[in-house]
Description:
This protein is mainly alpha-helical. It has helices at 2-6, 10-20, 22-28, 30-33, 38-51, 68-71, 85-100, 104-112, 115-120, 132-140. It starts with a helix and ends with a helix.
Amino acid sequence: MYAQRGGVSGSVVMKRFDETGVLSFLRNNYEVLHTQGRDYILSEIDQYLSNRGIYNWGDNLTPAPLPESILSMPEITQDNFRILLPGKIAKAVFLAAEHSGEDCFDVAKRFYASPIYHELERESSKYWWLSPEQLEAAMVG
């Protein structure tokens, strides 16, 4: 998918994915990513690279420009911020379970009873800004 979009060979993409950590990212996030569609996965790869300052790999392999609808997102409010939470919470719980060796269900029960979740429920706390990795660290620490 990425090779076709970038107009380069699959071997070039695999080499660059290895060099930039994308392969590890995909492997580490398989549980979440394998349930998503092609566009979501491509977007996650673009975001991963963008977060690391990689915008242009040369050879025409540049992340696609964001659609106008994304650039003009509505304001996040108490009424709509909850749409951001399920994916973040699921990944944070999965990471915590993976690191602790506990069952995901037990970790999820503990998370939903935690002060972190109660803060996450309030838009004004801005905890929704945290990445799943940061939420997992807050759960553990």
